[in-house]
Design goal:
Blueprint (H helix, E strand, L loop, with lengths): L4 H32 L3 H5 L26 H12 L2
Length: about 80
């Protein structure tokens, strides 16, 4: 006597488990979206990476003390200008 009902039962169990897993994943996606909140870039239309940047020369991030080159580097720049 051959028992043919078992493979069909196993398949149904696998399919149910797959559906449950898909529901859990969908629920996690919804929760993640809610945690993230609304994105601010679409509301204002401004790129957040460049927000607040003004065109033109920018201030030195290290302050004024590092704007001038040290003497050993200043000589090299002058020599480079004199070379043909």
């Amino acid at each position: 006597m051959v028992n043919r009902a078992r493979p069909a039962r196993n398949k149904r169990e696998r399919e149910r488990a797959k559906q449950e897993k898909q529901k859990e994943k969908a629920q996690k996606r919804v929760e993640a979206k809610m945690r993230k909140g609304p994105s601010g870039s679409g509301a204002s239309g401004e790129d957040p990476d460049i927000a607040g940047i003004v065109p033109g020369p920018q201030a030195s991030p290290w302050g004024e003390e590092f704007d001038a080159l040290p003497p050993e580097f200043a000589d090299e720049d002058e020599d480079a200008d004199e070379a043909p």
